[in-house]
Model the fold of this input.
Amino acid sequence: MEVRYENITKQFGETPVLENLNLTIHDGEFLVLLGPSGCGKSTALRMLAGLEDPTSGEIYIGNQPVTDMEPKERDISMVFQSYALYPHMSVFENITYPLKIRKVSKAERKKQADRVAEILEIGNLLKRKPKELSGGQRQRVALGRSLIREPNVFLMDEPLSNLDAKLRVHMRGEIKRLHTELGITSVYVTHDQTEAMTMADRIAIMEGGHLQQLAAPNEIYNKPTNKYVGGFIGSPAMNFVKGRYKGKEDRLDFDVFDFPIDHEWREIFERELSGDDLYLGVRPEDVQVSTTPQPGAVKGEVYVVEPLGKEMITIVRVGDHTVMACIEPDVDIEMNQEVWLQFKNHKLHMFDGKTEAKVV
Ligand SMILES: Nc1ncnc2c1ncn2[C@@H]1O[C@H](COP(=O)(O)OP(=O)(O)OP(=O)(O)O)[C@@H](O)[C@H]1O
Ligand SMILES: [Mg+2]
Done:
């Protein structure tokens, strides 16, 4: 079912946590709420579940306003970071608890438990107690409990953050497959950009109680709407250099970086820029590093080299700036060496120096 936040504002006492959130989640979509700690992700999710009341605004599930509805009337299931399993109950009892409180017959409970156990591959664990399970197994039991009935909306709040790195990677694939099979509208909260990029149909990036961008992962990556999003998504992070647009000279003056610009860019700058100040943004993989002088390249000095096996992160000092580049792992390059940097022109991002909104 479609989910809609309309003009949702939330304050705790005097402190605003969410300001005028407008967000539509399509029927069957996997939407990821992504943002740093404290930006209001869990609050947004908890309001949808009915565990918090908005200060103002309305939330809809389907076309039904739910703000005045009790959590249990909303037909939502939620998985938390701490799995919150009942310790005295077996895995079977934990998973089927939502059916038991709905007075579903034992035979039907057994049937549904078998179905869910098969999807999650926990059939051999049904008799165990939570303390006899690994973290990943507990997590799957918690997922099983929310999957056992098909809710209108499936909510997950950092469900993988207690797992080790390998299991996290495994489980994110499992959750994605499960979502594709079941097709239930899902809202998934995380501060992990890799989870967001790999799992989401669309990502809603939040910061300080505001929605910054709502788009598919590739669009967020390739067309960040502002400097914040550009810097938040991508690892290592986008490089930024502050500079000025010198209209009369058809140039961009980025301190040590000096660009002539063509007519097309000038038109855009004249139209879009609120002042002369600009941020140039370039991702590390779009910086080319040469060990010999190149025409039009920016000269720098290697500060440090970090081999990662499949690639090498090279940090280069250019004047007072530091530029990160991801380069081929087998380039022969060492600390303090002189290098020449070139930026892939069609991959450059420009942000307004004052508003930080994307200019091009
Ligand atoms: N019950 C509450 N009373 C007062 N302030 C609260 C309450 N719950 C949350 N907050 C505050 O609201 C802000 C947003 O909290 P929220 O839990 O939504 O953040 P989050 O994005 O989920 O962060 P994290 O990634 O750390 O879980 C924080 O500043 C938090 O301190
Ligand atoms: Mg949270």
Remarks:
- Residues 96 and 113 are 6 Å apart (CA to CA).
- The chain has two domains: 3-231, 236-352.
